[in-house]
Amino acid sequence: TISAKIGTKTLKKTFKVTTSPKIKYKNKTYKSGKTIIIKKGKTATLKLYGKASAIKNSVKVGSKKIAKITSKATQTKVVFKAMKKGNTTLTVKINGVKSFKYKIKVK
Question: Which of 27, 65, 82, 87 is deepest in the core (most CB within 10 A)?
Answer without folding.
Answer: 82
